[in-house]
């Protein structure tokens, strides 16, 4: 593993993260997963805060930075600070101010989640590639049946998509894994899969996507990190980053992308 190549851009950083993540030991993989899902925090957090978020010791997080090609956390942080100069709002600072006003009250919590949701929505314009989005819409619009899967935290998004497609008379099937039935046999040539999963990725969702891709069934995936396990399957990824508060993440940005997909697919099919 070459630890001397320092990523010069955020894109190069993401490519290296994807390259090394699969071979990392458990603790360092935790660092990779946390960084991939929380790139917006690198510029404003300390190494101790990043290590705490990843559930590792600061020394392990420093080792991860070195594997990524940096001399330490400060050099990695500089890359992200430089890339956002002049246009990146300091959301972490704003959330800290809100916490100081009383995070236990209903009004305080509402303010926290509104701010986190707003930050997530604004980041969509930076993380979602319009060309990739158009390709995803094209894949789904051409499908005979759209097979939707999203479990646990992703289930509200999956069920909303199923509801929206039904109302627009777009043939779709919601896979819920009730009774451990994955209904993979219902996916036929000419269909497409729409998967929603976030780190840590749901095994049932990953298994269905892998099985579909092994049969050359096209897959569109809403996911959150550059190192998503779905990338290697050849799925068309739409990356969505949700800013969290107190380890709770809303689905503001994900639902925004979901309604965009649903309406765009319905329009194209008409």
From TrEMBL:
The keyword Acetylation does not apply. CDD domains: SIS_RpiR (cd05013). InterPro entries: Homeodomain-like_sf, HTH_RpiR, RpiR-like, RpiR-like_SIS, SIS_dom, SIS_dom_sf, WH-like_DNA-bd_sf. It comes from the Bacteria. Gene3D superfamilies: Glucose-6-phosphate isomerase like protein, domain 1 (3.40.50.10490), Winged helix-like DNA-binding domain superfamily/Winged helix DNA-binding domain (1.10.10.10). Residues 136-270 form the SIS domain. One of its GO terms (molecular function) is DNA-binding transcription factor activity. The keyword Signal does not apply. Residues 11-87 form the HTH rpiR-type domain. Signal peptide: none annotated. One of its GO terms (biological process) is carbohydrate derivative metabolic process. Keywords: DNA-binding, Transcription, Transcription regulation. Pfam families: HTH_6, SIS. This is MurR/RpiR family transcriptional regulator.
């Amino acid at each position: 593993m070459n630890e001397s190549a320092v990523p010069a851009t955020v894109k190069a950083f993401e490519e290296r993260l994807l390259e090394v993540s699969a071979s990392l030991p458990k603790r360092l993989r935790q660092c990779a997963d946390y960084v991939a899902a929380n790139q917006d925090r690198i510029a404003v957090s300390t190494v101790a805060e990043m290590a705490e978020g990843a559930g590792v010791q600061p020394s392990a997080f420093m080792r991860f930075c070195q594997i990524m090609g940096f001399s330490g956390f400060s050099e990695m942080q500089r890359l992200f600070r430089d890339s956002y100069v002049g246009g990146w709002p300091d959301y972490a600072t704003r959330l800290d101010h809100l916490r100081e006003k009383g995070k236990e009250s209903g009004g305080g919590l509402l303010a926290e989640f509104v701010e986190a949701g707003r930050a997530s929505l604004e980041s969509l314009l930076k993380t979602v590639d319009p060309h990739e989005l158009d390709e995803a819409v094209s894949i789904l619009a051409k499908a005979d049946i759209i097979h939707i899967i999203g479990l646990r935290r992703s289930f509200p998004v999956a069920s909303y998509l199923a509801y929206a497609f039904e109302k627009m008379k777009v043939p779709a099937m919601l896979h819920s894994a009730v009774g451990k039935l994955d209904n993979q046999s219902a996916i036929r040539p000419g269909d497409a899969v729409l998967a929603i999963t976030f780190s840590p990725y749901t095994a049932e969702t990953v298994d269905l996507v892998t099985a579909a891709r092994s049969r050359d069934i096209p897959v569109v995936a809403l996911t959150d990190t550059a190192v998503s396990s779905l990338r290697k399957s050849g799925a068309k990824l739409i990356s969505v980053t949700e800013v969290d508060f107190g380890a709770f993440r809303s689905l503001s940005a994900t639902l925004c992308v979901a309604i965009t997909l649903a309406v765009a697919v319905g329009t194209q099919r008409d």
